[in-house]
Amino acid sequence: MGARISSTLLAFEGSKAAQASANQRTRQTQADLYFMKHKCVPAPPTKHAVLHRFSDSNNATVGNNIIQPGDLVSNEVGSGVLIIGDIHGCVDEFRALLKKAVEENNNNPFEAVVLVGDLVNKGPASAEVVRVARLTPGIFAVRGNHDEGSLAAALGDEERRKKKKYQWVMDGENIENECISDGIYLSDDDIMWMSDLPYTIRIPWILQEDGTEVTVVHAGLVPNMPLEQQAVDIMLTVRELIGIPSDNEVGNIDLVDARKHQQQQQQQLARELGDSDQTSKCMYQFDNAEALVNESEPQPWARIWRGPQHVVFGHDARRGLQQCEHATGLDTGCVYGGSLTGIILPRRKLVSVAAAKEYCPR
C-alpha cells in the first residue's frame, strides 16, 4: 500500500511539473520581441492559409493549388470538416460540441475542425480553450478581434492590460513559480500559436452544391475585392456595409477614404455616448457597392456577398445564426447564454449545444 501511495504521489508531482512547464511564460518569444520593437501585434506569417487534405499533402500541386510553406494539412483519417463559431472561453461547451458533432458525423472523426476566431475573452476558461485547440490534432483557427486584443495585452499593451476583459491574460504572471502548475495559463507556446493564426483559411476540397469553395474568416469580407487586398480591420470587425454613390451615382468611392470617414463618424458618436467601445468598427463604406447604391441603411455584409467563395464567419452574436446564399454566420452567443454552433461540411448540417449559463451580459 505504501509503495502504491508513493508511486501515485510521484505521478502527481510529475504531472504538476509537466503542467508548470506547459504554463511557462518567459516573455522572450518572437512575438514578444516583435512587440517590444514595434509596439504592435505581429501579423501572422501566413495571412491567408489554405487547408489541404492529408492524402494530397505529398503532392507539390493539388489541382490548381500549389502547396506553400505555411499551408495547413488535415488529419490522415476522418470524414468531413467541422467549423465552429465564437467560443469566447466557454471550454465545457467547446468540448461538448466536439463530442456531439462526432456523434452527428456517424461517430466518425473529422478530417479537420476549423474555429472562426474569438476563442477567448468574456468566458470562464480562455487559456484552456487556447490550450485545447493548440494541442488537439486537426484543429485550426483564424484570428478574431478578441484573439488579437488578448494577444496585444499578453505582449504588453498597457491600455488593454488595464481593462477587465483582459485580466485573464495576466493571471499566470502574478503567481509564484511553485503555484504555476495549479491551473492553465497562457504560455510561450500558446502565445506563438495565437500569433500564427491566419486571417482566413480556404478549404478548396470542400465544395458547395454550386461548386464554390469554402473560406473561413472571423468577421467578414468586402465584396468585389481580392482576398489579398482585404483590410485587416475588415476581416476582424466588419458587420455591416453601406454603399455611398459618388456624384455620378455609380458608387465609385475610394475604400480607404470612405472607411476613415465612417470611423470618424463612429468615434464622434462614441464620444457622445461616453463609451469608446460602443461603436467599435461595425460599419464600413466600400467602392462599387452595386447592391447597396439604392439602400439608405447599413446592410449585413453577408446578405450582399456574392462569392466567389462561400464564407463561414462569426463575430455577430446579435444577429445570431445567419444562413445567406453565399455566407453562413455561426456566432450564436454562447458566452451570453445562447449556444455554441457548428456546421458539418460538406453536408451543411448544423449542430449546437446550449450554454451552461450566461457568462457575460450583453
Word description of this protein:
It is a single chain. This protein has 362 residues and is α/β, with parallel strands linked by helices. 29% of the residues lie in helices and 18% in strands. The chain is built from ten helices and 17 strands. The protein has helices at residues 2-22, 30-38, 91-104, 126-135, 145-155, 158-161, 188-195, 232-237, 255-273, 301-304, and strands spanning 48-52, 61-62, 65-66, 72-73, 81-84, 112-115, 139-141, 200-207, 213-217, 240-242, 283-285, 299-300, 310-313, 322-323, 327-329, 339-345, 349-354. A hairpin with a 3-residue loop joins strand 14 (322-323) and strand 15 (327-329).
| Adjacency order of strands in the biggest sheet | 4-1-8-9-13-15-14
Query: Which structural class do you get from the secondary structure elements?
Result: alpha/beta
Instruction: Please trace the helix and strand order, writing H or E for each element.
Output: HHEEEEEHEHEHHHEEHEHEEHEEEEE
What profile does the largest beta sheet have? 7 strands, mixed
**C-alpha Rg, in Å?**
22 Å
Number of distinct beta strands: 17
Task: List strands and helices in order, with pairings.
Blueprint: H1 2-22, H2 30-38, E1 48-52, E2 61-62, E3 65-66, E4 72-73, E5 81-84, H3 91-104, E6 112-115, H4 126-135, E7 139-141, H5 145-155, H6 158-161, H7 188-195, E8 200-207, E9 213-217, H8 232-237, E10 240-242, H9 255-273, E11 283-285, E12 299-300, H10 301-304, E13 310-313, E14 322-323, E15 327-329, E16 339-345, E17 349-354
Parallel strand pairs: 1-4, 1-8, 5-6, 6-7, 9-13, 10-11, 13-15
Antiparallel strand pairs: 2-3, 5-16, 8-9, 10-12, 14-15, 16-17
